[in-house]
Specification:
Number of domains: 2
Largest sheet: 7 strands, mixed
CATH class of the largest domain: Alpha Beta
Number of strands: 22
Strand order of the largest sheet: 6-5-4-3-2-1-22
Mean pLDDT: 91
Strand content: 15-25%
Number of helices: 15
Bound molecules: zinc ion
Low-confidence stretches: 6-18
Radius of gyration: 24 Å
Shape: globular
CATH architecture of the largest domain: 4-Layer Sandwich
Distance between the termini: 35 Å
CATH superfamily of the largest domain: Ribonuclease Z/Hydroxyacylglutathione hydrolase-like
Structural class: alpha/beta
CATH topology of the largest domain: Metallo-beta-lactamase, Chain A
Length: 488
Protein backbone atom coordinates (compact mmCIF):
# COMPACT_ATOMS: atom_id res chain seq x y z
CA UNK A 1 0.00 0.00 0.00
CA UNK A 2 2.74 2.35 1.03
CA UNK A 3 4.71 1.51 -2.13
CA UNK A 4 1.66 2.21 -4.31
CA UNK A 5 1.13 5.61 -2.65
CA UNK A 6 4.77 6.51 -3.13
CA UNK A 7 4.64 5.47 -6.79
CA UNK A 8 1.46 7.50 -7.27
CA UNK A 9 2.94 10.58 -5.65
CA UNK A 10 6.07 10.27 -7.84
CA UNK A 11 3.88 9.97 -10.93
CA UNK A 12 1.85 13.04 -9.90
CA UNK A 13 4.92 15.13 -9.20
CA UNK A 14 6.40 14.04 -12.56
CA UNK A 15 3.18 15.23 -14.25
CA UNK A 16 3.27 18.49 -12.34
CA UNK A 17 6.84 19.03 -13.47
CA UNK A 18 5.92 18.36 -17.06
CA UNK A 19 5.57 22.05 -17.93
CA UNK A 20 8.43 23.21 -15.67
CA UNK A 21 11.73 22.82 -17.52
CA UNK A 22 15.10 22.41 -15.79
CA UNK A 23 17.21 25.48 -15.16
CA UNK A 24 18.84 26.64 -18.40
CA UNK A 25 21.61 29.14 -19.16
CA UNK A 26 22.03 30.67 -22.62
CA UNK A 27 25.14 32.70 -23.37
CA UNK A 28 23.75 35.54 -25.48
CA UNK A 29 26.86 37.77 -25.49
CA UNK A 30 30.50 38.09 -24.34
CA UNK A 31 31.05 34.48 -25.43
CA UNK A 32 34.13 34.16 -27.67
CA UNK A 33 34.69 37.89 -27.18
CA UNK A 34 34.97 40.37 -24.33
CA UNK A 35 32.06 42.69 -24.95
CA UNK A 36 28.26 42.52 -25.04
CA UNK A 37 27.89 40.63 -21.75
CA UNK A 38 24.45 38.99 -21.65
CA UNK A 39 23.51 35.61 -20.12
CA UNK A 40 19.95 34.38 -19.87
CA UNK A 41 18.92 32.17 -16.93
CA UNK A 42 15.59 30.38 -17.27
CA UNK A 43 14.28 28.70 -14.16
CA UNK A 44 10.85 28.09 -12.57
CA UNK A 45 9.22 29.77 -15.57
CA UNK A 46 11.15 32.99 -14.91
CA UNK A 47 13.67 34.59 -17.25
CA UNK A 48 16.51 36.42 -15.56
CA UNK A 49 19.03 38.29 -17.68
CA UNK A 50 22.54 38.72 -16.24
CA UNK A 51 23.87 42.00 -17.72
CA UNK A 52 22.75 43.65 -20.95
CA UNK A 53 25.94 45.03 -22.46
CA UNK A 54 26.83 46.60 -25.77
CA UNK A 55 28.98 44.69 -28.22
CA UNK A 56 31.95 46.87 -29.22
CA UNK A 57 34.15 46.33 -32.25
CA UNK A 58 33.89 46.98 -36.01
CA UNK A 59 31.16 49.57 -36.48
CA UNK A 60 28.96 47.63 -38.93
CA UNK A 61 29.19 44.38 -36.96
CA UNK A 62 28.57 46.20 -33.68
CA UNK A 63 25.43 47.87 -35.10
CA UNK A 64 24.20 44.52 -36.36
CA UNK A 65 24.83 42.68 -33.07
CA UNK A 66 23.38 45.42 -30.88
CA UNK A 67 20.27 46.04 -32.97
CA UNK A 68 18.50 42.76 -32.15
CA UNK A 69 18.08 40.57 -29.10
CA UNK A 70 18.04 36.77 -29.37
CA UNK A 71 14.98 36.75 -27.07
CA UNK A 72 11.82 38.77 -26.64
CA UNK A 73 12.70 41.69 -24.27
CA UNK A 74 9.07 41.84 -23.08
CA UNK A 75 9.36 38.28 -21.76
CA UNK A 76 12.37 38.97 -19.54
CA UNK A 77 11.26 39.12 -15.89
CA UNK A 78 14.25 41.00 -14.47
CA UNK A 79 17.85 42.00 -15.15
CA UNK A 80 20.71 41.57 -12.69
CA UNK A 81 23.52 43.99 -13.51
CA UNK A 82 27.08 43.23 -12.37
CA UNK A 83 28.51 46.72 -12.95
CA UNK A 84 28.11 49.94 -14.87
CA UNK A 85 30.61 49.44 -17.72
CA UNK A 86 29.02 49.84 -21.12
CA UNK A 87 29.93 46.32 -22.24
CA UNK A 88 27.70 45.12 -19.36
CA UNK A 89 25.00 47.82 -19.07
CA UNK A 90 25.02 49.70 -22.38
CA UNK A 91 22.13 47.95 -24.10
CA UNK A 92 19.68 48.35 -21.18
CA UNK A 93 17.95 51.45 -22.62
CA UNK A 94 17.38 49.54 -25.86
CA UNK A 95 16.02 46.52 -23.92
CA UNK A 96 13.54 48.79 -22.13
CA UNK A 97 12.57 50.52 -25.34
CA UNK A 98 11.82 47.12 -26.87
CA UNK A 99 9.35 46.20 -24.15
CA UNK A 100 11.24 45.14 -21.01
CA UNK A 101 9.34 46.52 -18.01
CA UNK A 102 10.85 44.53 -15.11
CA UNK A 103 13.31 45.49 -12.38
CA UNK A 104 17.01 46.06 -13.01
CA UNK A 105 18.86 44.97 -9.87
CA UNK A 106 22.23 46.60 -9.17
CA UNK A 107 24.28 48.03 -6.31
CA UNK A 108 23.60 51.72 -5.43
CA UNK A 109 26.94 52.92 -6.90
CA UNK A 110 26.30 51.01 -10.14
CA UNK A 111 22.94 52.72 -10.43
CA UNK A 112 24.52 56.16 -9.86
CA UNK A 113 27.25 55.49 -12.42
CA UNK A 114 24.62 54.27 -14.91
CA UNK A 115 22.76 57.56 -14.42
CA UNK A 116 25.67 59.31 -16.18
CA UNK A 117 27.04 56.52 -18.36
CA UNK A 118 23.83 55.34 -20.08
CA UNK A 119 22.74 58.81 -21.32
CA UNK A 120 26.35 59.40 -22.44
CA UNK A 121 26.42 56.11 -24.41
CA UNK A 122 23.05 56.99 -25.94
CA UNK A 123 24.42 60.34 -27.05
CA UNK A 124 27.42 58.62 -28.68
CA UNK A 125 25.09 56.14 -30.40
CA UNK A 126 22.89 58.96 -31.75
CA UNK A 127 25.95 60.86 -33.02
CA UNK A 128 27.27 57.68 -34.69
CA UNK A 129 23.98 57.22 -36.52
CA UNK A 130 23.92 60.86 -37.70
CA UNK A 131 27.51 60.44 -38.97
CA UNK A 132 26.54 57.24 -40.81
CA UNK A 133 23.42 58.88 -42.23
CA UNK A 134 25.46 61.73 -43.72
CA UNK A 135 27.50 59.09 -45.59
CA UNK A 136 24.42 57.07 -46.55
CA UNK A 137 22.75 60.18 -47.95
CA UNK A 138 25.72 60.72 -50.26
CA UNK A 139 25.34 57.12 -51.49
CA UNK A 140 21.55 57.46 -51.85
CA UNK A 141 20.90 54.89 -49.13
CA UNK A 142 17.90 55.15 -46.76
CA UNK A 143 18.56 56.78 -43.39
CA UNK A 144 19.01 54.63 -40.27
CA UNK A 145 17.16 55.18 -36.97
CA UNK A 146 19.11 54.99 -33.68
CA UNK A 147 18.08 51.86 -31.73
CA UNK A 148 17.50 54.09 -28.70
CA UNK A 149 17.88 57.72 -27.70
CA UNK A 150 19.04 59.65 -24.65
CA UNK A 151 15.43 59.89 -23.44
CA UNK A 152 15.21 56.05 -23.40
CA UNK A 153 18.37 55.92 -21.26
CA UNK A 154 16.86 58.37 -18.79
CA UNK A 155 13.58 56.39 -18.70
CA UNK A 156 15.27 53.04 -18.05
CA UNK A 157 16.95 54.43 -14.92
CA UNK A 158 13.50 54.37 -13.27
CA UNK A 159 13.52 50.57 -13.48
CA UNK A 160 16.59 50.22 -11.22
CA UNK A 161 16.19 48.62 -7.80
CA UNK A 162 19.33 48.75 -5.68
CA UNK A 163 20.78 46.26 -3.22
CA UNK A 164 23.96 46.74 -1.17
CA UNK A 165 26.76 44.18 -0.93
CA UNK A 166 25.95 41.05 1.09
CA UNK A 167 22.24 41.83 1.45
CA UNK A 168 19.71 39.33 0.06
CA UNK A 169 16.64 39.79 -2.10
CA UNK A 170 14.12 37.40 -3.68
CA UNK A 171 14.00 38.40 -7.32
CA UNK A 172 11.97 35.58 -8.91
CA UNK A 173 10.15 32.42 -7.91
CA UNK A 174 12.70 30.34 -5.96
CA UNK A 175 15.61 32.69 -6.73
CA UNK A 176 17.52 34.75 -4.16
CA UNK A 177 20.08 37.38 -5.21
CA UNK A 178 23.19 38.48 -3.30
CA UNK A 179 25.88 40.87 -4.55
CA UNK A 180 29.47 40.65 -3.27
CA UNK A 181 32.33 43.02 -4.09
CA UNK A 182 34.18 42.28 -7.36
CA UNK A 183 36.85 44.99 -6.80
CA UNK A 184 36.76 45.89 -10.51
CA UNK A 185 35.12 49.31 -10.61
CA UNK A 186 33.15 51.37 -8.08
CA UNK A 187 29.98 49.38 -7.24
CA UNK A 188 31.06 46.31 -9.22
CA UNK A 189 29.63 43.03 -8.03
CA UNK A 190 29.88 39.31 -8.34
CA UNK A 191 26.36 37.93 -8.60
CA UNK A 192 25.23 35.02 -6.43
CA UNK A 193 21.93 33.34 -7.32
CA UNK A 194 20.60 30.79 -4.82
CA UNK A 195 18.14 28.76 -6.81
CA UNK A 196 15.46 26.26 -5.75
CA UNK A 197 14.74 24.54 -9.04
CA UNK A 198 11.13 23.35 -8.90
CA UNK A 199 11.66 21.00 -11.84
CA UNK A 200 14.34 18.95 -10.10
CA UNK A 201 13.66 19.86 -6.46
CA UNK A 202 17.35 20.70 -6.16
CA UNK A 203 18.96 23.70 -4.55
CA UNK A 204 22.00 25.13 -6.29
CA UNK A 205 24.17 28.20 -6.10
CA UNK A 206 25.27 29.94 -9.28
CA UNK A 207 28.09 32.49 -9.17
CA UNK A 208 28.53 34.97 -12.01
CA UNK A 209 31.92 36.61 -11.58
CA UNK A 210 31.09 39.79 -13.54
CA UNK A 211 34.50 41.35 -14.23
CA UNK A 212 37.06 40.40 -11.59
CA UNK A 213 39.32 43.14 -10.24
CA UNK A 214 42.97 42.95 -9.23
CA UNK A 215 44.06 42.49 -5.65
CA UNK A 216 45.86 45.50 -4.13
CA UNK A 217 44.05 48.12 -6.20
CA UNK A 218 44.73 51.66 -4.86
CA UNK A 219 41.05 52.55 -4.58
CA UNK A 220 38.97 49.39 -4.35
CA UNK A 221 38.68 46.44 -2.00
CA UNK A 222 39.88 43.01 -3.12
CA UNK A 223 37.31 40.73 -4.80
CA UNK A 224 35.31 38.99 -2.04
CA UNK A 225 35.31 35.18 -1.73
CA UNK A 226 32.17 33.07 -2.13
CA UNK A 227 31.26 29.70 -0.56
CA UNK A 228 29.29 26.59 -1.59
CA UNK A 229 29.19 27.29 -5.30
CA UNK A 230 27.79 24.71 -7.76
CA UNK A 231 28.01 26.56 -11.06
CA UNK A 232 30.36 29.36 -12.11
CA UNK A 233 30.18 31.79 -15.03
CA UNK A 234 33.63 33.35 -15.02
CA UNK A 235 35.36 36.08 -17.01
CA UNK A 236 38.61 35.25 -18.82
CA UNK A 237 39.81 38.56 -20.32
CA UNK A 238 43.47 38.06 -19.39
CA UNK A 239 43.77 34.26 -19.47
CA UNK A 240 47.41 33.41 -20.23
CA UNK A 241 48.60 37.00 -19.63
CA UNK A 242 50.57 38.50 -16.83
CA UNK A 243 50.32 42.16 -15.74
CA UNK A 244 53.19 44.33 -14.65
CA UNK A 245 53.55 44.67 -10.85
CA UNK A 246 52.28 47.88 -9.22
CA UNK A 247 55.77 49.02 -8.18
CA UNK A 248 57.14 48.54 -11.72
CA UNK A 249 54.17 50.49 -13.06
CA UNK A 250 54.90 53.46 -10.82
CA UNK A 251 58.55 53.54 -12.03
CA UNK A 252 57.47 53.17 -15.64
CA UNK A 253 54.89 55.96 -15.34
CA UNK A 254 57.40 58.33 -13.68
CA UNK A 255 59.93 57.64 -16.43
CA UNK A 256 57.36 58.48 -19.12
CA UNK A 257 56.36 61.73 -17.37
CA UNK A 258 59.98 62.83 -16.89
CA UNK A 259 60.59 62.12 -20.59
CA UNK A 260 57.62 64.29 -21.60
CA UNK A 261 58.86 67.07 -19.28
CA UNK A 262 62.30 66.94 -20.85
CA UNK A 263 60.92 67.01 -24.40
CA UNK A 264 58.33 69.66 -23.43
CA UNK A 265 55.80 67.55 -25.28
CA UNK A 266 52.40 65.98 -24.63
CA UNK A 267 51.46 62.77 -22.89
CA UNK A 268 48.06 61.66 -24.20
CA UNK A 269 46.26 59.03 -22.14
CA UNK A 270 43.05 57.51 -23.54
CA UNK A 271 41.30 56.43 -20.38
CA UNK A 272 37.95 55.05 -19.33
CA UNK A 273 36.11 57.94 -17.73
CA UNK A 274 35.01 55.82 -14.83
CA UNK A 275 37.46 54.24 -12.45
CA UNK A 276 40.60 54.28 -14.61
CA UNK A 277 40.69 58.09 -14.64
CA UNK A 278 40.14 58.32 -10.87
CA UNK A 279 42.76 55.63 -10.30
CA UNK A 280 45.24 57.50 -12.52
CA UNK A 281 44.62 60.76 -10.66
CA UNK A 282 45.06 58.99 -7.34
CA UNK A 283 48.38 57.48 -8.47
CA UNK A 284 49.64 60.72 -10.10
CA UNK A 285 48.88 62.58 -6.88
CA UNK A 286 50.77 60.02 -4.79
CA UNK A 287 53.81 60.00 -7.12
CA UNK A 288 53.83 63.79 -7.27
CA UNK A 289 53.86 63.89 -3.43
CA UNK A 290 56.74 61.43 -3.42
CA UNK A 291 58.61 63.88 -5.74
CA UNK A 292 58.95 61.28 -8.49
CA UNK A 293 58.52 64.11 -11.04
CA UNK A 294 58.13 67.88 -10.99
CA UNK A 295 54.82 69.80 -11.30
CA UNK A 296 53.14 69.23 -14.65
CA UNK A 297 49.88 70.62 -16.04
CA UNK A 298 47.34 67.79 -16.11
CA UNK A 299 44.03 68.05 -17.96
CA UNK A 300 41.09 65.68 -17.55
CA UNK A 301 39.13 66.34 -20.72
CA UNK A 302 36.01 64.26 -20.35
CA UNK A 303 32.74 65.61 -18.95
CA UNK A 304 31.85 62.05 -18.00
CA UNK A 305 35.09 61.57 -16.03
CA UNK A 306 34.46 64.81 -14.17
CA UNK A 307 30.93 63.66 -13.22
CA UNK A 308 32.17 60.17 -12.32
CA UNK A 309 34.71 61.68 -9.93
CA UNK A 310 31.81 63.31 -8.07
CA UNK A 311 30.07 59.91 -7.78
CA UNK A 312 33.26 58.47 -6.27
CA UNK A 313 33.03 61.12 -3.58
CA UNK A 314 29.41 60.05 -2.86
CA UNK A 315 30.41 56.44 -2.31
CA UNK A 316 33.61 56.79 -0.32
CA UNK A 317 32.33 54.08 2.06
CA UNK A 318 32.71 51.55 -0.76
CA UNK A 319 36.36 52.43 -1.41
CA UNK A 320 39.34 50.91 0.34
CA UNK A 321 39.69 52.39 3.86
CA UNK A 322 43.04 54.06 2.94
CA UNK A 323 41.48 55.69 -0.13
CA UNK A 324 38.41 56.96 1.69
CA UNK A 325 40.68 58.33 4.42
CA UNK A 326 42.70 60.22 1.79
CA UNK A 327 39.48 61.66 0.36
CA UNK A 328 38.40 62.90 3.80
CA UNK A 329 41.83 64.27 4.70
CA UNK A 330 43.34 67.67 4.03
CA UNK A 331 44.64 67.09 0.54
CA UNK A 332 42.31 65.89 -2.18
CA UNK A 333 43.74 63.33 -4.63
CA UNK A 334 41.04 64.24 -7.13
CA UNK A 335 41.93 67.93 -7.01
CA UNK A 336 45.73 68.32 -6.79
CA UNK A 337 47.72 71.36 -7.86
CA UNK A 338 48.09 71.71 -11.64
CA UNK A 339 45.00 69.55 -12.26
CA UNK A 340 42.40 71.06 -14.61
CA UNK A 341 39.00 69.45 -15.02
CA UNK A 342 37.85 70.48 -18.48
CA UNK A 343 34.09 70.81 -18.90
CA UNK A 344 33.13 72.92 -21.92
CA UNK A 345 33.82 72.27 -25.61
CA UNK A 346 35.65 75.62 -25.89
CA UNK A 347 38.00 74.69 -23.05
CA UNK A 348 38.58 71.35 -24.74
CA UNK A 349 39.39 73.01 -28.07
CA UNK A 350 41.80 75.40 -26.35
CA UNK A 351 43.92 72.36 -25.43
CA UNK A 352 44.96 72.23 -29.11
CA UNK A 353 47.01 75.35 -28.47
CA UNK A 354 48.71 74.50 -25.16
CA UNK A 355 52.48 74.25 -25.09
CA UNK A 356 54.07 71.22 -23.43
CA UNK A 357 54.86 69.68 -21.13
CA UNK A 358 51.34 68.53 -20.36
CA UNK A 359 49.31 65.43 -19.62
CA UNK A 360 45.90 65.08 -21.29
CA UNK A 361 43.65 62.33 -19.98
CA UNK A 362 40.55 61.85 -22.09
CA UNK A 363 37.87 59.24 -22.87
CA UNK A 364 37.07 56.82 -24.32
CA UNK A 365 39.65 54.30 -23.17
CA UNK A 366 39.51 52.28 -26.39
CA UNK A 367 39.67 55.55 -28.39
CA UNK A 368 36.43 54.66 -30.15
CA UNK A 369 34.61 57.91 -29.49
CA UNK A 370 34.67 61.08 -27.42
CA UNK A 371 37.11 63.98 -27.14
CA UNK A 372 40.17 61.69 -27.15
CA UNK A 373 39.74 61.42 -30.94
CA UNK A 374 40.50 65.14 -31.35
CA UNK A 375 43.57 64.90 -29.12
CA UNK A 376 44.82 61.90 -31.07
CA UNK A 377 44.36 63.74 -34.37
CA UNK A 378 46.38 66.66 -33.01
CA UNK A 379 49.16 64.66 -31.41
CA UNK A 380 49.61 61.34 -33.18
CA UNK A 381 51.95 62.63 -35.90
CA UNK A 382 54.45 64.34 -33.57
CA UNK A 383 57.32 61.96 -32.66
CA UNK A 384 57.99 63.89 -29.42
CA UNK A 385 54.58 63.02 -28.00
CA UNK A 386 53.77 59.86 -26.11
CA UNK A 387 50.46 57.99 -26.28
CA UNK A 388 49.97 55.91 -23.18
CA UNK A 389 47.43 53.07 -23.02
CA UNK A 390 46.37 52.15 -19.52
CA UNK A 391 43.63 49.64 -20.24
CA UNK A 392 42.20 46.91 -22.37
CA UNK A 393 41.26 47.69 -25.98
CA UNK A 394 38.87 45.33 -27.78
CA UNK A 395 40.02 44.01 -31.14
CA UNK A 396 39.62 46.38 -34.12
CA UNK A 397 39.04 49.48 -32.01
CA UNK A 398 41.31 52.49 -32.73
CA UNK A 399 43.04 51.98 -29.36
CA UNK A 400 43.79 48.37 -30.27
CA UNK A 401 45.25 49.42 -33.65
CA UNK A 402 47.54 52.00 -32.02
CA UNK A 403 48.59 49.56 -29.28
CA UNK A 404 49.28 46.86 -31.86
CA UNK A 405 51.67 49.15 -33.76
CA UNK A 406 49.63 50.08 -36.84
CA UNK A 407 51.60 52.74 -38.73
CA UNK A 408 48.57 54.39 -40.31
CA UNK A 409 45.20 54.92 -38.66
CA UNK A 410 41.95 56.53 -39.61
CA UNK A 411 40.66 59.07 -37.09
CA UNK A 412 37.27 60.69 -37.69
CA UNK A 413 37.44 59.99 -41.39
CA UNK A 414 41.05 61.09 -42.08
CA UNK A 415 44.21 59.03 -42.46
CA UNK A 416 47.11 59.75 -40.06
CA UNK A 417 50.66 58.46 -39.82
CA UNK A 418 51.49 57.20 -36.31
CA UNK A 419 54.76 58.90 -35.36
CA UNK A 420 54.16 59.46 -31.62
CA UNK A 421 55.70 56.94 -29.24
CA UNK A 422 53.31 54.26 -27.96
CA UNK A 423 53.52 53.04 -24.37
CA UNK A 424 51.28 50.67 -22.41
CA UNK A 425 50.76 50.11 -18.69
CA UNK A 426 48.51 47.12 -18.22
CA UNK A 427 48.76 46.98 -14.47
CA UNK A 428 46.22 49.80 -14.32
CA UNK A 429 43.87 47.23 -15.73
CA UNK A 430 40.69 46.70 -13.76
CA UNK A 431 40.92 43.00 -14.67
CA UNK A 432 42.75 40.26 -12.85
CA UNK A 433 45.56 38.63 -14.87
CA UNK A 434 45.98 34.88 -15.39
CA UNK A 435 47.46 34.08 -11.96
CA UNK A 436 45.02 36.41 -10.23
CA UNK A 437 42.10 34.69 -11.98
CA UNK A 438 43.38 31.35 -10.75
CA UNK A 439 43.69 32.55 -7.18
CA UNK A 440 40.18 34.08 -7.37
CA UNK A 441 38.95 30.64 -8.49
CA UNK A 442 40.75 28.98 -5.55
CA UNK A 443 38.85 31.23 -3.17
CA UNK A 444 35.50 30.16 -4.64
CA UNK A 445 34.38 27.35 -2.33
CA UNK A 446 32.07 24.43 -3.15
CA UNK A 447 31.99 21.60 -5.65
CA UNK A 448 32.01 23.88 -8.72
CA UNK A 449 30.42 21.16 -10.85
CA UNK A 450 30.50 23.19 -14.06
CA UNK A 451 32.52 26.27 -14.90
CA UNK A 452 31.71 28.33 -17.99
CA UNK A 453 34.32 30.79 -19.24
CA UNK A 454 33.01 33.96 -20.85
CA UNK A 455 34.26 37.52 -21.53
CA UNK A 456 37.50 36.65 -23.35
CA UNK A 457 38.97 36.46 -26.85
CA UNK A 458 39.05 32.73 -27.79
CA UNK A 459 42.80 32.33 -27.21
CA UNK A 460 42.62 33.94 -23.73
CA UNK A 461 39.63 31.81 -22.67
CA UNK A 462 41.33 28.61 -23.93
CA UNK A 463 44.49 29.39 -21.95
CA UNK A 464 42.47 29.86 -18.78
CA UNK A 465 40.40 26.76 -19.54
CA UNK A 466 43.56 24.61 -19.78
CA UNK A 467 44.91 25.91 -16.48
CA UNK A 468 41.59 25.58 -14.64
CA UNK A 469 40.90 22.09 -15.99
CA UNK A 470 44.28 20.90 -14.68
CA UNK A 471 43.61 22.52 -11.32
CA UNK A 472 40.00 21.36 -10.99
CA UNK A 473 39.71 17.77 -12.29
CA UNK A 474 36.49 17.07 -10.35
CA UNK A 475 34.55 19.74 -12.23
CA UNK A 476 33.85 20.37 -15.90
CA UNK A 477 35.50 23.57 -17.18
CA UNK A 478 34.52 24.80 -20.64
CA UNK A 479 34.62 27.89 -22.83
CA UNK A 480 31.06 29.08 -23.46
CA UNK A 481 30.01 29.48 -27.10
CA UNK A 482 27.79 32.28 -28.35
CA UNK A 483 24.12 31.22 -28.12
CA UNK A 484 25.03 27.91 -26.48
CA UNK A 485 22.27 26.74 -24.13
CA UNK A 486 23.05 24.47 -21.20
CA UNK A 487 20.52 22.66 -19.02
CA UNK A 488 21.62 22.21 -15.43
ZN1 LIG B 1 34.07 46.01 -16.58
ZN1 LIG C 1 33.61 43.78 -19.10
Amino acid sequence: MFRQDAALSLAISACLRWDVANMKITFCGAAGTTTGSKHLIEVNNSRILLDCGLYQGRRAEAMERNRDFPFDPAKIDCVVLSHAHIDHAGNLPHLCKRGFTGNIFSTPATRDLCSIMLPDAAHIHESDISWLNRHRKRDDLPELEPSYRQVDAEKCLRQFVTLGYERHMHIADGVRLTFIDAGHVLGSAQVILDIDDQATGKHSRLLFSGDIGRPDNDLLNNPAPCEKVDYVIMESTYGGRKHELAAQTADHLCKIIREVQQRRSHLIIPSFAVERTQQLLFTLDRLRHENCFGPIATYVDSPLAVKATEIFRLHVDELKPEASKALFMRHDPFGFEGLHLVRTVDESKSLNRIKGPAIIISASGMAESGRILHHLRNNVENPNNILLFVGYCAENTLGWKLRSGHKHVNILGDEFEVRAEIETLDSFSGHADHDELLSWFDRVGGVKKRVFLVHGEPERSEKLCEALSAKHPTGQVEVARLMQSVEL
